Amino acid sequence: MLKKWLGGGEVGKGFANTFARAPLYLIVLAFLSISQAPAIVRADEDLQSPSSPKRDSGDSIDRVTAFIPLPAAADPIALSKPDSAGTPLFLTPDVAARSDSPNAADEIWSAYIDLWKAHHADPSQAELRTLFGLPTGADVLITQRRGRVAPSELQWRPGSFRVWQTDHFEILSQADDIESRRVAESLEREYWVWTQVFFPIWAGRDQVALVTNDWNWQSTTADAHLKSLSSPARIKHGQRHRVVLL
Predict the structure, then answer these.
(1) Which of 68, 78, 135, 186 has its Cβ near the most Cβ atoms within 10 Å?
(2) Global model pTM greater than 0.90
């Protein structure tokens, strides 16, 4: 099938020539959904194991904790409680950034994580949902339509596939509707996790900097700060990432 798609016997050459002049398409053969995953995503391998020596609280920093979007009607998510000394069991990036970090960019990353924490504390908060572009009745907005013109590399006939769209992805799919929707939901959740873990290289970081520029996080809540802005804040996105689901 690969050989036929690439158009002949010189598979390597065909592959290079085809994708040199075509947009990048991700071919999804299998996808691990996080639709049933905890609302707070954490990489367990980064945490301290029971057998490892106890580290100082300043070193117990979990740099890979992130939050997925929640429906407005979802119950608030309780974060980890501090230990008897008042120190969080694992410090998320905002705590690390505010521990006398000399890097101003850490403060912006810190503020971004705080916005997601505020969303989890009150998923129905309208200003935060507007900021992230979350729909009122769900955590991911998905639309679909009959596919008409597929990329020439796929050789798909009109009507033989469907196009599923979220805010950040366009999925060309010949899979069934249930699987296509599952992948769309999972990709969108994974996108928001990616923005938190890899915030320093995310294109939207400059928009976050503008939104949080005058936010006094010590005296003002996230929703109160967003309400104080002259116009509703919304993180804008560029072109959707295109995905092919076979």
Answers:
(1) 68
(2) no
